[in-house]
Each structure stands twice: as structure tokens, then as C-alpha cells.
Amino acid sequence: ELARRTGWPILADPASGLRRGPHTDRAPVLATGEHLLRSRWADDHRPEVVVQLGAMPTSKSYRLWLEGSTTGRVVAVDHLGRYPDPSHVVTHRVDAEPGALAEVAAGRCGNQGPTWWTEAWTEAERRASTAVARVVANSPFDEPAVVAGLDAALGSDTRLVVANSMPIRDLDAFLPTDCRPMRIMANRGACGIDGLVSTATGVAYDSGTPTVLFTGDLALLHDLSGLAAVRRLGVDLTVVVVDNDGGGIFSFLPIVDAAHVDHRRLFHTPHGLDPGLVDEFVGASLYRPDDPVSLADAL
């Protein structure tokens, strides 16, 4: 509501829940920030104020953009005392629950509506979204295609639990805005890998609705014992595993180019295991999709 009234664009992290729902038809909610903020266009459209609500967004582009920004004010709003600021650019800190603050602010500000600034960002979002969708549609079957498959197949009553590392970043880069509701949950932070399957199981058990866990192979293997609860509780849990035999995110570290470091053994940590074998452990149905059609059929 605050964005609709002011015309201020929202660069929405996927875990915020703001990318999905009927409000996206009325408010300037953007999903391509990870791409836009890497462009010269964003350098030419720097705001006077950035308001960061809650936790630090997933987007690396956002952090780098802030570091190089000439924005005069960066306001961090947080009720947990964190005020995440890895680049030391925050100028103002507000101790308030982000949703409550936005509700109060929306009630006090006028109904300005869209401005030329709003139109510039929403047009950039439209063009970037079209380009991203085209690239994903014409690329090999990989992580972006899995995100597209989840987006197309999951119903509005489904809970989507997303792993740390690459899955949440894939969602950030490739999940578009849509008026269809989708509840997205994620364990973020240094220990976000811990208990991931158990978290998804708890979500499925508590909500009583279909739940999908989108994860990599390492995070799944790290919490295999959580699968025991799936069978014991009889919950409806679908696990979508992107198996690249190790930690794919570490290939993006600068150290990957260091000739004296055995990057594959120390960082990628290939395990050589077949995650599909856990189907016998929990009595699950196993599918091994290798293209968008077979993924859609499995989901």
C-alpha cells in the first residue's frame, strides 16, 4: 500500500512474499533487481533515499550497487536490532517492525500515485522480465528452468521452502512477479543449511497444505535425518533437488581462479552420492526430470 500511494518502487526479495499476490497489479513491485542493478541504467537512476526493510536482501547486485551509490540516505528499518549493513552505507536506523512502519507511513502520506520515477522503473522491469524469460526459455535445462517450472506448476495453496546457497539466489534472479499468491519461506544466515528438510517438514505439517522444498544436493544430504519425520508424520512434501554433486555457489568465489588452491576438493566438495536413493529410505516416489516437460509432469 505504501508503494502504491507514493509510487516508490519495491525491489522485492523472493523471501519477502511481496513478489506474489493481487497487490502486484496495483503497486510497483519489481523482481529483476538482481539484473537491473548491474546495469548502467541503474547507475543513471539512483534514488535520493533507499529504505531497506528488514533483513539484508539476497541480491549481490543490491549490495554492490549500494557500495558504489551516491545516494544521500540509506535507511535501515529493523525491529530485531540487526540493521544489516555489510557495506557500512546505512545513514539512518529505525527501530520498528517493517510491516507496521509501512502501514503507518501509508496512512499518513498522500495518495500521490505513479510518477515519472515510478514509470521509469516499471518500464525497466518490464523489459528486463521479458529478456530474462526469453533467455530461460532458450537455455539448456538448468536451475533457471527449474525456477520457471516451479513458477508454472505450483498452485496458490502451495508452500515453497527454499534452501540457502544457489536455490534462493536462483529464485531471486528468475522468479517473476505475479498476481497469483505463493507463500515462500527460507532459512537465511550463516547456518541456513542446518535442518532444512526438518524445516520444510514442519511447514508441511503445520500448514496441512502441499509443500515443496527447493534445494541443492548438499543441503539435502546435510539433513537426511529430517526425512524420517516426513514418513512418520505422513506429510505432503515434494523435494525438488538440483544435483550438481557439491556446492555450486562456491564456483562464484574469487578463489576459484587461484591456481594453488584445490577448489574442487576444498570448496565444491563433491560427494559422489546419488540423492535419489533416499526414496527407498522414506518410501517416496522418485522422478528424474531432464527437461521442462518431465519436470512439469513430476510436479
TrEMBL record:
Signal peptide: none
Pfam families reported for this sequence: TPP_enzyme_C, TPP_enzyme_M_2
InterPro entries linked: MenD_middle (IPR032264), THDP-binding (IPR029061), TPP_enzyme_TPP-bd (IPR011766)
UniProt domain Thiamine pyrophosphate enzyme TPP-binding: residue ranges: 196-249
Protein's name according to its UniProt entry: Thiamine pyrophosphate enzyme TPP-binding domain-containing protein
Gene Ontology MF terms in the entry: catalytic activity; thiamine pyrophosphate binding
Sequence ranges assigned to domain Menaquinone biosynthesis protein MenD middle in this UniProt record: 2-161
SUPFAM superfamilies listed in its UniProt record: Thiamin diphosphate-binding fold (THDP-binding)
